[in-house]
# Entry
Amino acid sequence: MAPIPRPQQPPQDVPDSYVGMRADDAERRATDRGWARVRRLAPDAIVTMEFMPGRLNLAVQDGEVVRCWQG
# Structure
């Protein structure tokens, strides 16, 4: 039987540290720090509830990150 895959672990990073950054800079930093996916959203975007450990979500308004969370 094939081994059960282990879930990807997110980078050891603090999502709140991205708040206030320019969106392009935040996305570059997240990629450099090992986030597999970075998703930009409007602050009031409706999103699905699926959780992806290697994904960082950036709520962006006027080019600036106003909220950030993993999953």
